[in-house]
Fold these 2 entries.
Entry 1:
Amino acid sequence: MTDNPAALIVLAAGQGSRMQSDLPKVLHRLGGVPLVGHALAAGRALDPERIVVVAGHGADAVRKAVARLEPDAVIALQTEQLGTGHAVLQAIPHLDGFEGRVIVLYGDTPFIGEDTLLALSSHTADVVVLGFETQDPGRYGRLVTGPDGLEKIVEFKDADEATRAIRLVNSGVLAADAALLRDLLPQIGNDNASGEYYLTDIPALARASGRRVEVVTCDEAETLGINTRAELAAAEAAFQTRARALALEDGVTLSDPATVWFALDTVIGRDAIIGQNVVFGPGVTIESGAEILPFCHLEGCHISAGATVGPFARLRPGAELGGDVHVGNFVEIKNSVLDEGVKVGHLTYLGDAHIGERTNIGAGTVTCNYDGVFKHKTEIGADAFIGSDTMLVAPVRVGARAMTGSGSVITEDIPDDAMAIARSRQVTKPGLAARLMQALRQKKGK
Ligand code: UD1
Ligand code: CA
């Protein structure tokens, strides 16, 4: 590592026509987050001072997604896709006043490793290109090297037979000194087979002005770009395989690894147990020793040590489970905090609620949190007992140690230690059932 500050430029303006999609390519999801989120997450390893995402096709949607993924990033608009060199040029105004290393990544290339990026950014050459050796160089740009580093990059379309035989190719990732980029980018022309402004002209231009240009290589797998739905599916499989292996290495028990699905940012503590067919959406953290039973779907939630969830539970964004909380089958929890020791055994919906310590929520309880326009909160104190099939019509507050009768529809606050029964009183008519049955059977017999 050097203390050289870093800036990140992520190219994400292309349409990705081979995806056959109305969605911009970089917004297709891998590991639960948009493709561009993977490049941004890897780039975070560089602790960048500036992050610029170049957007074009579907720029509004890309802008929204990037704001969620990386609030520090700014968007540079590239209204016409005139080539990778032109794309990087659009980002330059956003690097005004920045001196240091600029690293260019592609938004559709999700597997670039943090170590690789650190190797690039800490390299002392003026320009560093990330390349890889491959058996099948296909249509990649060819890296032409000499005794003192990289001489030039030749695009496939512009390469002669001898150059096409080169198996050291361009990943697209490049690092360069900011001042040098500002100087060289405007010099790039479009007199080539594609009529595009190639970023890949930078190495030769840098060499011509006496600069040092080098290649850093990485594993081909890191450079995998997504162009089609089939490639996206294959990348998802590769991502999941790696995420499962990492979880196992970290000391997580996966009862049947192939059936557990991870997101890019899933965090699971040591000695947690994950049952079969569990899906993690983005934003899940699970502390050591928690257990997720089979067939659960979790997203944007935190599970504390000692908690058990499922089978068949759904935890949605904002679900926070304290220590030793028990959530059982067919329970859905959204934007709710369950304090230590809460039990929600079965068939329940908790939304926009806070449940105090050790409170028991009976089967079939529902927080009626939505009036069709607004969401409302339900507050339940500690050590309360909510009877089965209670409807809690929010906003409503249930005091500590309070109880509700089964089948109650609670519309008013309940003080501490009180019992609320909100259902019609039972009427029992001796013998009526037998008489009614007899009458009905007689009618049928006629
Ligand atoms: C590029 C490289 C090639 C390299 C290959 C690796 C150039 C000229 N060629 O070729 O040497 O081997 O990547 O995959 O750079 N983009 C924009 N705006 C544009 C053009 C592209 O944002 O005007 C984005 C695309 O959305 C994409 C990335 O830049 O994410 C690469 O563009 P693409 O057209 O796919 O480049 P390749 O032809 O694959
Ligand atoms: Ca490409």
Entry 2:
Amino acid sequence: MKSLIQKKFNELFGNDGEFFKSAGRINLIGEHTDYNGGYVFPGAIDKCILAEIALNGSEKVKVFSIDCDEYVEFGLNEEDKPDQSWACYIFGVCRETIKRGGKVAGFNAVFAGNVPLGAGLSSSAALESTFAYAINELNGNGIDLFELAKIGQSTEHNYCGVKCGIMDQFASCFGKAGCLIRLNCKTLEYKYFPFDPEAAGYKLVLIDSCVKHELASSAYNKRRESCENAAAAIRKNHPEVEFLSDAKRLWLEEVRQEISQEDFLRAEYVIGEVQRVLDVCDALERNDYETAGEMMYQTHFGMSHLYEVSCEELDFLNKLARKMDVSGSRVMGGGFGGCTINLVKEELYQPFIDAAVEQFTARFGHAPKVYPVVISDGACRA
Ligand code: GLA
């Protein structure tokens, strides 16, 4: 990937730049909890966006995407927003840096990536974090890593129409090889947990349904609204509830008649999920992978029946995992397609993958993709 980028950069701009990269992520548990002020438990993976970048002495950004085989140029003012959706991520990062008082001089860039798109592995956060990190370094802005993650998140909110939480950009920026990170999304306190399932005889594997739902971002925003409705109703009785994650299950019960059935189910899922993250962390500290895996099944149930962000293909993969005695399995990321994440005993690893590929293909007419997971570093110079 690096030599391809280098060649294209030289061809387009006639010189060399500096390399930066940032990673996609997995999340062991804690889904749709981030924008509710709850816990998440992600880690960066060995799939990344890699970019070569150099300041160009102009007020323009000139970028080539190798994967889209497309060149785009844009200015740095609000009205210069490009038409191409991939370029909007980079434009958004520039604008959000400027809004925070950072300097953004014009630059040339060529980038490529191997984070599968639409698989729930946060390719967009990897793109945002790569550029947020690079722009910060090249302009000497001294913005801290948390704020760089927030630059990516605000890019999604203000330039891409997704009211996401902080998990993806956080993992992409803060990832550390061999570690998952438990983040409290309310206080932003975080803790690295060394994560080595293989030492206990387990492996993680992602099975990508290759299903992508067109309306995923509006459905995502709608889930968020439901949670805010539920939190607002609970807050009337319990003013200390700032986010839905502050609420107790009983407090949700008190407002059952005041909110829609849909909002109730969404909130029920979130309150359960926040607790499951803590339970999984406790279980892992005891090396109890079976309990952690069981929690993953509970999350899948909630995401499928209460939060309703699963789909037929993902439910099929989840059921198959259960049938084969896989220790844990669930839909990962925002949902509406993408991957299941599976915690599998070593001896079941290959048989499970073979069965998943064979049976999924027979049922849906296309093969799923299989990604082994390697927990890696986040944003850095490359
Ligand atoms: C997407 C969002 C994250 C998070 C997850 C669900 O990946 O970008 O902020 O909400 O969905 O956990």
